[in-house]
Amino acid sequence: MKRRRVCVLCGAAAGAAPGFSAAAAALGELLARQGHEVVYGGSSSGCMGALADAALAVGGHVTGIVPRQLISNERPHQRLTDLEITADLASRKLRMFARSDAIIALPGGTGTLDELLEALTMKRLDYLEHPIAVVNVLHFYDPFITLLAQCIDTGFADRTQRGLFDVLAEVPAVRAWLLQ
After folding, report:
1. Pairing state of beta strands 37-40 and 5-9?
2. What was the pLDDT predicted at 74?
3. Which fold has domain 14-178?
4. Residue 26 near residue 54, CB atoms below 8 Å
5. 102-105, strands of its sheet edge to edge
6. What does pTM read for this prediction?
7. CA–CA distance from 102 to each of 30, 129, 155, 170 (Å)?
8. Residue 1: predicted pLDDT
9. Rg (CA), the chain
10. CA–CA separation, 76 vs 174, rounded Å?
């Protein structure tokens, strides 16, 4: 099996349903147990913290990338394998993508959506070749998928854009997805 450096996009908040943090923890453990490196936003809180804690608990390699201006807000995780501090949010995204070879989006807020849309745009424009998946925990990404369909239906995006990413119903599906 090919070992990957997987960039995980997710929230520094836990979300309103316990299933969100549970999915982040399950993904962190799954990736670490399979020998994949986790690359993420570096926070110790919310889904980000759950992801890192679970991966580290089973001996995983976890790299956090935090912009200098968010060090006080996002409280970088103190036990990471590697922590990189960037000048700003734009640099953070580029470093997370550069240090990975696959991208998985879990539920999150506007920052997570920004990162996902940037990755999809970069892939569409051939700046990025990474496979991209969204894990549709508790149907979180249903409205996003509907919005993309509307962009296609109204002529603002071509149909090939739907093929830029895969939708996975749950975390266990990541195992097979990474083998593709």
Report:
1. parallel
2. 67
3. Rossmann fold (3.40.50)
4. yes
5. 82-86, 62-67, 37-40, 5-9, 102-105, 132-135, 166-168
6. 0.96
7. 15, 9, 29, 17
8. 61
9. 15
10. 26
User: At residue 75, what are phi and psi to the nearest 5 degrees?
Assistant: 40, 85
Residues in the chain: 180
Q: Return the closest-CA partner of residue 168 out of 11, 41, 30.
A: 30
Give the three-class secondary structure for 144: helix
66-103 pLDDT tens trace = 998 877 776 787 899 999 999 999 999 999 999 999 99
Looking up tokens 């996002």 gives 74
Kindly give the interhelix angle for 18-33 and 46-57, rounded to the nearest 10 degrees.
30
Question: 154-180 pLDDT, tens per residue?
Answer: 999 999 999 999 999 999 999 999 988
Structure-token pair, residue 145: 């998928």
- Cβ–Cβ < 8 Å for 14, 46: yes
Which residue in 63, 52, 26 sits closest to 170, CA to CA? 26
